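User: Here's a chain of 293 residues. Predict its fold as tokens.
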Amino acid sequence: MPGQPSSLYAPTTLKPELDQMKRFHQTQLPVIVILLLALQCGAGTISLEQGVRTDDTTGALDVTITNRGDDVCRNITVTCEFQGIRVTANGPRYLNPDDSGLYTTQLDFSTVPGDYFAVVRTSYSDANMRQFSTVKLHKFSVGSAGVSQIVAKFGDVEIAGHGTAVLRLHSNEGTEVEATLHVYAPNELIVGDIQKTITLAPGAAPTIEIPLENFSALAGSKYPLHVAVTYQRAGVRYITPVTAYAQVLETPADSGNTTTILGMDISPIWIAIIVVVAVIVVYCFSRRRRTRQ
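Assistant: Prediction complete.
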């Protein structure tokens, strides 16, 4: 109307812009939030630090695990294999970043003096429910034990789909001995068949090839391989433990397993979930807006 300030008409002139901002918050903003939350699911890392201790008197075995990563370590299962018997240790199922957990079990020690070893295997999952594992070989002595006279050298190996680790032995024993080979790898790698019992004459230096297969190992990662060479002499057990690492190489089939978004590797499954959720959210808000109109 004549004589009225023009500022009174400002809300009318800004109404289309306000409606556009409102529609943005109703449709686009929830989608952005969901995308960021979904991407965050694959952003964390888990790095476990393990320590193993045995009580030679009581037979107790304690495993201390600390999560040094920035993501929660979930569904933790710790198993201990000793003298062919596998038992599950008692302990927490989840570890937050920088938290530690104690996992305990009981071993049945033999009366034969000498060196022994226990294999501690830890399985866990991350926020995306991907399964991982670690394996550790723990050597300890019961009673009076000497020094093993079998020298072992175990070289690192590179694996694409398959690979071969090479173990070299040398016997410094003065008499012939019969040695047994025990090979352990994480669940992500498959160890092929090898000759587990070998007769070593004095000065013998055989080479053993250990075939490996990539089951679910991630390209660019390193996985430990453990070998324990055991034998007895004069009623005493001896062990030579040795460790190598398998470096997993990327194969052409691996190159399509992840997509890098905002500096993070996202699997195709998560990308599909993000797209489906985004479409559903946009559809729901669009339908609500049409209903209001």
